[in-house]
Amino acid sequence: MDNRSVSHINIASLLFHFLISIYLTNALRCYQTGNFTTNSTYAKNRGLLLSSLASNVTANGGFYTATVGQGADEVYGLALCRADSSSEACSNCVNTTMIDLIEKCPNQKEAISWWAAGDNCIIRYANRSIFGRVEIDPPEIFYNTGDIKFNMEEFDQIWSNLMARLSTKASMGSSKVKFATREADLTPFQKIYALMQCTPDISQSNCNYCLGQAVVQYNNCCHGKQGGGVYTPSCIFRWDLYPFYNNSIADAPTPTPPVSISPHSTNNTISKDLDENSSTECPKFNFETIRLATNDFSYHNKLGQGGFGTVYKGVLSNGRVVAVKRLTRNSKQGRVDFKNEVMLVARLQHRNLVRLLGFCSERNERLLIYEYVPNSSLDRFIYDRDKRLLMDWNMRYKIIVGIARGILYLHEDSQLRIIHRDLKVSNILLDEKMNPKISDFGTARLFPIDQSEDATSKIVGTFGYMAPEYVFNGIVSVKSDVFSFGVLILEIITGQKSNKFRIGEEGEGDLITFAWDNWIGGTASNIIDPILIGAASTHDIVRCIQIGLLCLQDDAAKRPTMASVVLMLGSAVLCPCIVKTCIS
């Protein structure tokens, strides 16, 4: 790209910025759901509510909700400022928007205005409760009339990855702010800039859903345009080819939530022999505390066992229930895995990763203390003849999406880049609400943030889940985990093990081969667990099979990133076409 084309984009972007500011002044909806008279109680309550929003929003961090009145005259309202706006800009925007709403919606019982003054805020009121609810209608969609001048296939991949990563980052915010900005390199001279925000009263999953739908709405309307976005009542997203947000505020670090630990743990951090470079504090428990918590590692407290050792249920003196992984003694590999897991997992905070509370290294014992996850591992459900009946499609889909988000966090959104290397159903734990949590990081590989693959002479993991380039050539990358995730999808959909797959009365076969044969033959429904047939949308399940097969292509370069997978799972974005020749 030469300087003239860069200048052309900058001029076009500035013009768009000017036009979009004018356009957004009119981004206001007066709902036709009921009217009130000028001197009514509802009118007075609306005035009091809007005044309350304007006077309190900046003092409450840019988001404020309120109700005024009761019964049929009760008014609900909220004000939200864009998280990268200053207090002054926030206050000015809310005051201007309040006046605008009163003038343009003089007697409507419900109305909303998006970013009406300076692209900085939203105000909404209604005669019904609007708090904690995700609403995507009515949308306000806008775009730059200029067309993208780049290779569209390459642009779409970069753009989609950016949107998936951004929606995950924004939805993982707190109850006070759910906001994120991000850039992606389009060329050495040009970036894509994007911003997403949800009203922080909605849940993480609802925020992610809202943003995913906004991206779909934009694509359906404005694909190929040089910038734009979608505003809905619960979330907004905007992107452009120039920086339109305040980086100094937008990139402020999010505080790490505190870890609750046993009062018997010490303040010791990981010793130097564990990690020379770690600055992450991981509480060290004393052995006697854990011995008492597990009733001297009683058989009755045993939760499971594997090649790494045994896991026990424990109850600390403060009543907190924990899971204790007791690694096998006198194992050199066990010492390596222990060090690896403490170093890595202590730094990770995500709802779909099991949480490390501390460790113990005394008396030739190596113990890892985790949060207790009551429903054990996914294999205890998906492979069990009776428990599998409890797993309807909605539950299985939720588990698939949760695993995908956890892997995306490991690959792109944590402070580190981590390749798990042993993703399998027995390493997916389920909490009391059947939310999945990825566990067992003993064989995980830490990568520099700018490195995507490496070679190793030591193959670790579980056969049946390993990517071909890893098994045969020792190439480990983020795409190795993508392959394993593809196997997980098929196992969750079929309810069977990949390496012990039963094909009717014909005996055992290979799940991946069976899935590909049926996909090519147009009989993908043959892959679905029979208990799901008729009780769920076959179209939705087949769509997930397609995503799984995209992840299982032999050519690692053709597999999607986890960012693309999360985007495909969370929206109606069409999956790329796949054919058998993709995995020849």
From TrEMBL:
Polar residues bias (residue ranges): 262-277
The Gnk2-homologous domain, residue ranges: 24-130, 136-244
Region (Disordered): 257-277
Chain ranges of the Protein kinase domain: 297-574
PANTHER family the record matches: CYSTEINE-RICH RECEPTOR-LIKE PROTEIN KINASE 27-RELATED (PTHR27002:SF1104), RECEPTOR-LIKE SERINE/THREONINE-PROTEIN KINASE SD1-8 (PTHR27002)
Leader sequence residues: 1-27
Topological category with respect to the lipid bilayer: Single-pass membrane protein
A family per Pfam: Stress-antifung
Subcellular location: Membrane
Segments crossing the lipid bilayer: none
Keywords on record: ATP-binding, Glycoprotein, Kinase, Membrane, Nucleotide-binding, Receptor, Repeat, Serine/threonine-protein kinase, Signal, Transferase, Transmembrane, Transmembrane helix
Domain of life: Eukaryota
Name the record gives this protein: Cysteine-rich receptor-like protein kinase
Binding site for ATP: 325
Organism encoding this protein: Hevea brasiliensis (Para rubber tree)
